[in-house]
Amino acid sequence: MMAAAPLYCVCRQSYDVSRFMIECDICKDWFHGSCVQVEEHHAVDIDVYHCPNCDVQHGPGLMKTRINWHRHDYTEPDDGSRLVQAGTSVFVRELQNRPFPSAAEILVQMQGHQVTQKYLEKQGFSYPITVPQLGGLGLKLPPSSFSVRDVEEYVGGDKIVDVIDVARQADSKMKLREFVKYYYKPHRPKVLNVISLEFSDTKMAELVVVPDIAQKMSWVENYWPDDSFFPKPFVQKYCLMGVKDSYTDFHIDFGGTSVWYHVLWGEKIFYLIKPTQDNLALYEVWSSSPNQSEVFFGDKVDQCYKCVVPQGTTVLIPTGWIHAVLTSQDCMAFGGNFLHNLNIGMQLRCYEMEWRLKTPDLFKFPYFEAICWYVANNLLETLKELREDNCQPPVYLTDGVKALITALKNWLKREVTEQASEVPDHIRPNHLIKELTKEIRYLEEEQRGGSKPMKSQACGPCPLTRSTLDRARHHACRTARRLRHHHDHHHAPKTPSNLEILELHTRQVLKRLEVGPFEEVRALTHYPLPHSACVTHIVPILVCRQRPTSPTTEEEAIEGMLSMAGLLYPQRPEESSTECLAELSQRIQKNKNFMDNQSSGCNSNSSEAWGDQSPSQAASSPLCLDHSSGTDYQYSETSLSPPLHPSKRPAPNTPPISNQATKGKRPKKGMATAKQRLRKILKLSRNNHFLL
After folding, report:
1. Which of 94, 171, 108, 163 is nearest to 326 (CA)?
2. CATH code, 121
3. How far apart are CA 559 and CA 548, in angstroms?
4. What's the Rg (C-alpha) of the chain?
5. Pair type for strands 314-317 and 246-251
6. pTM of the full predicted structure?
7. What SS3 state is found at 332?
8. Interatomic CA distance for residues 245 and 123, integer angstroms
């Protein structure tokens, strides 16, 4: 039989790793701090501890005697040989007297309504931004009268919070109600600082709405799937409560996240260092040095800027900025962290630095690698859409994807020796990396003078962080652009002949039809109309019902191909085939002009895009053409299959084959050219394989 677990403390319970315990120096038994009224941050001040039982026989324990005010261990002899350590009272006093260049040299001061995603995508997010007024940011906060006691009421006094003992720069845990008691003491024996109270899962979350820019750009908000195996990271809502002289030494926020801070009341001072290549290298060396606390990192770099953040001010700190924070007076602030697309390379570099420094998981961005896989999967879709739209992605996105590819490859190699994996189940990692690499190669070929120029500014802002609805709308617009892709060029094209236009249509339709003759007729006669509000009308293609008496080769090809497609129109007896073809060309050109005029209508409402019909009505009703000539034109009804319901449409049509892609290349063996297909159509039609 297994031995019973040993029992400890006056409560006689087994060991619990999550609860702080202290050992009695007399009986050597262990006791829960909560059972013997000893708080974790006080334990370090006890020299000799006596439990309640031993205290009766041997008297009370002994406390440590302070010998110095400049060392984390205040019992060290003060012989003047040891340097001042960060966070001690001597350090804070010296820091307040140090001269620093003003952060006004690097800060970008803006109004709330100016801080938009469009602005940051255009101008970049490389320098800290300060917003002196709350309005326009979309940030919702409690009133400035909101107190530490109010935090306890909304969050709960039993909430365990991480508390930093500033003089020792050491972390401990305590219940929120104990911190509130400490905060309101007239004489505080220590300087304690709360900087990591994330309250998304509490009632206080309803009182805070993060800034619009942090919400719209956040990877977690945009890319984290609801059905993820990994728990969703909550890092957007922190409450920071610090007393005067609280200090946090130089650091980079986990995963290279960008940060928003708002000082509700009180004041904070930031010491900011730009994340240059040299500064980041120096920071990594400093972070891993054994005497880190004795070296003020601001002295190791060229410039360390001082930024005072008073009450009511919001500051946005970009990716990778190295910063320390001093609380110059009792202060409550709110803040949050977010990853985004603008500085992907820097975010990955910061994460790799954390990995090399062996940063504990507790102090890293939760499931950082998992979210990078999710982002890579979504950015692949974005790059494909931009390429299909002939739109050049912004440089920051291209560079970010390149950095992401390198990181993902390294993580896959690392998995060979490490057990833990953060690759989501539904993602094929090697395939994803291959596809991303392929998209980057396409872009590089275009930049080296590829086949056709890509639009840059004409595309407008690229929708790189879209909601599901936005993506659906963009997909519909993309489908419409595919349909008119070969009719809407940047440069004035040569007027195509009738045969060229019909060959193009043949490619689009017959490419999908590698089936029997009867199925081809059914598919062609039910070529569906897009029903999205963004989709413009398809160019209607018409053909005479009666054969010309002596057709030319071109006319015969046109008639034969379109007859099999079931796209017919009546010919008046007096019209010749030449007149019929002239009218065909005229109507094709008219509809081409109509589509060009409608090309800017993707953002219009459905009534504007479809006239008086709703999208569903327009999709389900027959296509009626010009009635001004007194002739009814419509699609023929040769198919036996039922009409397609607008909500059950098949996948979007395959985009037309690019002429440039096949330029100078012979068709592969077994692949028919468009003209060969036309000959096949004519042959089949003469042999009565199709109903005309």
Report:
1. 94
2. 2.60.120.650
3. 9
4. 35
5. unpaired
6. 0.67
7. strand
8. 36
